[in-house]
Specification:
This protein is of the alpha+beta class and 95 residues long. The protein is built from two helices and six strands. The chain has one domain.
């Protein structure tokens, strides 16, 4: 189970920007990008914003997969902003 810290930055025209820093297993990030899964984020940018996104490779950056750094990040709960994996369906994680 290889995890990494990722930074997300998506510009939504006329509404704003969605950003986040989070940890996820690399295999799930690969699946999200390769399968171009659409995610419904709700009204994260304000009332009536109804945001749907398909995360593109240029909107996500792997910060590090260093095991020590990832453990510190998780232990100190350094997550920030939007984690798109909190919005995918439960069956996304099934093998």
């Amino acid at each position: 189970m290889e995890k990494a810290i990722y930074k997300l930055l998506i510009s939504i025209p006329r509404h704003g920007t969605i950003s986040g820093i989070f940890v996820i297993e690399k295999k799930y990030m690969k699946k999200l990008l390769e399968e171009k899964i659409e995610i419904y984020l709700g009204e994260v940018l304000g009332k009536h914003s109804e945001v749907y996104v398909t995360v593109e490779e240029d909107e996500i950056v792997e910060i590090t997969d260093d095991v020590t750094v990832v453990e510190i990040f998780e232990n100190y709960n350094l997550y920030s902003g939007i984690n798109p994996f909190e919005y995918v369906s439960n069956d996304f994680f099934e093998e």
